[in-house]
Structures are given as C-alpha cells and as structure tokens.
Amino acid sequence: MSIAAVVIGRNEGARLIACLTGLQGQVAQVIYVDSGSSDGSVVAAEGLGAQVIALDMRQGFTAARARNAGLAVVNSDIELVQFLDGDCVVRDGWLDSAQRFLDAHPHVAVVCGRRRERHPEASVYNTLIDDEWDTPVGEARACGGDALMRVQSLRDVGGYRDTLIAGEEPELCVRLRHAGWKIWRLDAEMTWHDAQITQFSQWWRRSQRAGHAFAEGAYLHGARPERHWVGETRRALLWGAFLPCSILLLTLFTGPTTLFLFALYTLQIARLSLHRDLKWASFTVLGKIPEAIGAVQFYWHHIRGGKSKIIEYK
Questions:
Q1: pTM across the whole model
Q2: Do the beta carbons of residue 84 and residue 6 sit within 8 Å?
Q3: Across all residues in the chain, what is the average pLDDT?
C-alpha cells in the first residue's frame, strides 16, 4: 500500500525543514498545509518538493481543519496517510513497521507508536509532555496528532471535526470505533517532537486547551457507553473550580480558619505521587485549575452560541 504524508504547521522554521526532509524517499506524496506562516515556511516546503496548501485564515484555524485540507488532496491511488505536526520528525523504520501491521490487521484503521520529546531535559514541562506520550501498547481508544491511518476509513466517517480547537484525534477515534474500526498503539519509535515549552505560561495555556477539549469531547460523546472524557471533565471542574471556589466562599462566612481545607490538595498530591512521582503529581493537581478554566470557556461559548478561539501555547 502506498503512503502519503500530511504535515500541518505555522512558523515552524528549521523544525519544518527537518520534518519534510525526513519524509523524502519514504512516502509517495508529501502535503504541507500552512496556516499563515510569516517565516518563509511555504517557500521552504515548496523547495523540498511538498505540495503546499495555504489555509484560508479568514475562516479561523484549527488543526482539524488543516488535516482535512491535506486529506482532501491525497491522491486517489494512495491508501494510507501519515499525519504529522510540523515540529515532528518521523523515526527511521516507523512507516515500514506501521504499514506491515496494517497489512496484517485489516480491522485496524489507525496505528501509532512512541512519540518522544527531543529535549525532555530542557524544562520540567518538556519532561511532563514526554511522559504523557508514553501510552500503553496494544489496542487503544485514541491516538495523538502523529499516526498512520487508512484514507478510506477516514473519508467514510467524514474526516476530522473541523470546529474542534483541540482533542480532534480522540474525537475522530470515537467515530472510527463506532464504525467498527480499531485503534492500535505499537511498541515502536514513531516520531521526535520539539515542544519548546520553557515557560510556566505555556504549560498553563496547554492545560487550559486540554480542559476545553475534555469538556467539548464529553459534550459530543459523553453518553453511555462511550463516556468520552466525562471523568476528565468532572475531575477538572471539581479540583479546579468547585472545590477552591467553595472553600473561598466558606471563608467569607466562617473566617480564615476554613482555608485549612486547601490541605486537601496536599493530600491529593501525596496520593497521586504513590502512582508516579511528586513532580508529576504536583503538576497534575495544579493543572486542574487551567483545565477547569478551559472547560468553563467551552460551556460559556456553547451557551452563547459562539465559537471558541484556538488556545495557543507556542
């Protein structure tokens, strides 16, 4: 089966060049979807032989919309498409092993592997992201932004949901699974990723975006038996909104002694650290606050009938 690659990005600079260079000679078609770059990315991509699509930014950007734009121009004789973000580089041997797996498992629509952060030592945030991507091997409920997929299965379910500002791959995987397909995580190195998250504010916005994705995903597919991201949304709202607001409200009526209830967060961190480590547990608990903000943003825009703007962290 032949493979196309769809790469999306904006102002990725040298990272995009590395991404496209790594695909040369490995795929039959390379498509780069640019979302308003001002750093010469379009010219660089064209120089490397990629078919470039300039996304109309007047309609607003989402990664889902960009991936759909790339999928729409995949050649009719190509059966598989590798999606990549422009800050990723495919690892040697990944496409061959992933294609062999799909050849041998016709019921699987999406296969992904281990995405690794190129510089996890650069910041605590990069380390956390690298750990986040170390997902269980075997049948999975969802994939991330990098994955090899069957073109026809994507088209049969309508592709990505254009309007999602985050969480578009898990939402797509819900619909694929409902259509009878399976998602699989291989024990194989798939891509290098270069997050370049070095500031607390970047991590905060990324967590906020995750909260928005949780709430919208639960709104779309939260009914039984799927219960998509219902638990994640509830935990974000409980620890990031309801509990702190309740404690502060009680303090107004009972005095500052009620503030001792914030010790619940210390206990939660201690409990979670039994499963991983103190650093992961601390950021997991702290992250519920921006996640709750993102969830509330979704509900606010949904009630008002408006659209959420993309939450960028780079």
A1: 0.95
A2: yes
A3: 95
